[in-house]
Amino acid sequence: MTQTDPLARKLRDGLERLGAALRADQWAALADAPLNPTQAQILNFLVKRGGARVGAVAAELGVSQPTATDSIAALERKGLAQRRAETKDGRATLIFATARGRALNETLQTRVGATDRALAALDPAEQAQLLALFINLIRNLQLEGAIAPQRLCVTCRHFRPYAHDDANAPHHCAFVDAAFGGAALRLDCPDHEEAKEAEEIWLKFSRGAPTGDAAREAVP
Amino acid sequence: MTQTDPLARKLRDGLERLGAALRADQWAALADAPLNPTQAQILNFLVKRGGARVGAVAAELGVSQPTATDSIAALERKGLAQRRAETKDGRATLIFATARGRALNETLQTRVGATDRALAALDPAEQAQLLALFINLIRNLQLEGAIAPQRLCVTCRHFRPYAHDDANAPHHCAFVDAAFGGAALRLDCPDHEEAKEAEEIWLKFSRGAPTGDAAREAVP
DNA sequence: GAAGTTAAATAGGATTCCTATATATCTATC
DNA sequence: GATAGATATATAGGAATCCTATTTAACTTC
Fold it and tell me: Mean per-residue pLDDT for B82-98?
């Protein structure tokens, strides 16, 4: 592909538009809070991961390492994050959210913005569709090396796509040993372990249910 | 809704992730160009619209008006945009891309980044699905007043959803007087005219094809 | 152990991005 | 038509983001 195809170009424009709306939303949600969207995003990442290196923060935000250092310093000044030496590697620094940081993150994460409402207004089938498409895109970006590996179900060694007949919960997670449906697929699971045979799992997943109705819905 | 529902929350996270990837992409694509993603986005907007007011630029980017003024000034310093008095309204300023600006925009828009490739890797049916979902979301945001009115087919008075029997091109545009399919729906059409009966058009569109197979695909 | 690689910090600087306010101009009202 | 209010932008002021290039320290490899 030497040229963007028109539809992909349109989708990028749409993504850009939604991204801008999300960013504006975040500023609005933080109007009374002592931080800005970038800091809030880092804080949430630190809480979710229970600490992270500077490089991981930079990769998560998609910014350069010095920028991550800058923003982490801002969080530190505000007493929301702390820096500790990494024992395994003397070059590295681990960043943690403080108790105050965790508490603040908790209140911020429950706030509902315009984008949340727009997403919630989709009907459940559309939401599930969108989630599947996002997972697909994130996986594509990961394969390209454009983003750091995400903790997706579809690349996890515990994931068994279409292990069950139940159309509402066809998948199985071997870690929690439970069946679940497409709407419960995760983008960032703490129990994730990268599968060696990720490609194989993906094929099984993207092929859809293995029964007769696996035929494409586009076909009448 | 006083609390984000879990799936909507997950979708917001996904959107955030894709937005970050897109931003990183834009920086990479502009590595050798004399501007940054924000300026490039403004420049593209100015070219698409053939000029815009400061306020419209701010609304498009989802930033405050002074921020838009700042970035427009940066484009002006670089000789890529120009400011003119708006004749209709003495308070307003119209911003235009210069010939150099238009030329630069042209070369930049043809560049293909990681996000474009990730989108292009989706199969055509998935791309069409994603476009429909984006349109739905953008419309929801517009209804909430969270973003400025976009020039969408689905809110245009020339749009006739499912006017034809052809499953590949069921819609009709009365402006160009031609049939077209879901993949050709626009997010920013220069010929757009806001429909008075937008809600009605939307209902007709979202209900799907009016024939017997209009039943929800979720139903067996 | 030397050379190369990697993680983070530092330096330096342009720009983004905000809120608050000033200025002009338009619009609606008495 | 004068006046009050609303609107469009610019300005002021300042914190942070964000970059590239470089330095420092620590790990890794041969």
Answer: 93
The pLDDT of residue B209 is 78
Mean pLDDT for the stretch of residues A192-210:
88
Q: Which of B66, B89, B115 is the last residue of a domain?
A: B115
What are A85-114's pLDDT values in tens digits?
999 899 999 999 999 999 999 999 989 999
Hits for CB < 7 Å against strand D across B residues 141-160: none
3-state secondary structure (DSSP) of residue A171: strand
The answer to whether A12 and A4 have CB atoms below 8 angstroms apart is yes
**Number of domains comprising chain A:** 2
pLDDT of residue A46: 97
Inter-residue contact A72 to B31 (CB < 8 Å): no
Q: What is the CA radius of gyration of chain B?
A: 20
Which residue range is the domain that position A196 belongs to?
A: 122-216
Q: Give a yes or no: residue A13 inside a domain.
A: yes
CB atoms A13 and B187 under 8 Å: yes
Q: Is residue A147 within 8 Å of A58, Cβ to Cβ?
A: no
Interface test with B, best of A1, A3, A4, A109 (most B CBs within 10 A): A4
CA distance B51 to B48: 8
| pTM, 2 dp | 0.91
Q: Is residue B1 assigned to a domain?
A: no
